[in-house]
Design brief:
Layout lengths: L2 E10 L15 E13 L2 E8 L8 H14 L15 H8 L11 H19 L4 H9 L7 E7 L9 H13 L4 E5 L5 H13 L6 E5 L6 H11 L6 E3 L7 H7 L7 E3 L6 H10 L8 E2 L8 H14 L14 H10 L4 E3 L20 E3 L12 H9 L3
Bound molecules: oxaloacetate ion and magnesium ion.
The site of oxaloacetate ion has 8 residues, from loops.
Organism: Ramlibacter aquaticus
Protein name: Mandelate racemase/muconate lactonizing enzyme family protein
Amino acid sequence: MRILEVREKTCPIASPIRNAYIDFSKMTLSLVAVVTDVVRNGRRVVGYGFNSNGRYGQGALMRERFIPRILEAAPASLLDDSGANLDAHKVWATMFRNEKPGGHGERSVAIGTIDMALWDAVAKIEDKPLFQLLAERYGQGTPDRRVFVYAAGGYYYPGKDDRQLKDELRSYLDRGYSVVKMKIGGASLDEDRRRIESALSILGPGQRLAVDANGRFDLDTAIAYAKALRAYDLFWYEEAGDPLDFELQATLRNYYDKPMATGENLFSMQDARNLIRHGGLRPDRDWLQFDCALSYGLVEYLRTLDMLRQHGWSASRCIPHGGHQMSLAIAAGLGLGGNESYPDLFQPFGGFPDGVRVRDGHVELPELPGIGFEGKSDLIREMRALTE
Ligand SMILES: O=C([O-])CC(=O)C(=O)O
Ligand SMILES: [Mg+2]
């Protein structure tokens, strides 16, 4: 078998929302198709992938470096021992040839997106759900198809008042979520305190609020927010300071003993390891949000999970950023703590297969070959338009 072609298309996911750091008025992502010469169930196997929101499309890097490296490699050098399927680790190594270590900028997004499409193809060629394949190869043998998901939103939006914020978050709770997340740090502390108290006022028993500062705060501001937030029973306090300021994160634990979360802007096992070594995070309560689609894909995420194990962290402390089905499959296959979801944003990307409902803050993944994109009609329509 061989890879015939790798296609990329940059798609808009623009919206007028803003977090504490950026607005999404020009946001894009890369949609990728890895076309193989294998036929399964009467259809050519094509693996699909896309990068999550926040880092823009990466077509230029893909076309200049990563796609040519794959297509120029001897086809047999990309296959597993059986010769009947791709080996995602070998394709990854081929993409990374002549890349120096460190400085994991945008190339981790380009490689991560192609990696997603590769795993989709690998699982489709095996004719099984990716979560099943992962549980068998790297996990406990059996997946847990019931995955915790939380609803992310609560963005700043022109003219949005507290009533609209409450209506938005209430609509997520009405759809079965038990944890909802809102943005902070894009307004004054007083204003954010008022927004948070509004949001808390709509929660019922067993329902929780998480807040996300998107790396906006310097140490003094992060501490001031920590002192204010510790009065509330928040699900977590996310990304207070710059993603690479491990000392800030480590200092913050002296002011906030409740759960914190971070990691969505760390794009390699090595950066994740620095967070674990130097960030002062606590394996009994804090959460790790590394997102494979932005950080060199599942091949690298497996290295990150290994690193976490070596440092005494359970995979169940990981709830990835990004709201895509790839992390859902990893969560079900490898026992992550759950996954993010954006019920009303960045469509048709992310989300769940049609008919999957959130109940008590969990979804149950259906048995679809690959990552499961074929089960989401609006998404697969866009994906197939890339190749058919
Ligand atoms: O607003 C964003 O960039 C997305 C984000 O941080 C999240 O989903 O946690
Ligand atoms: Mg975040």
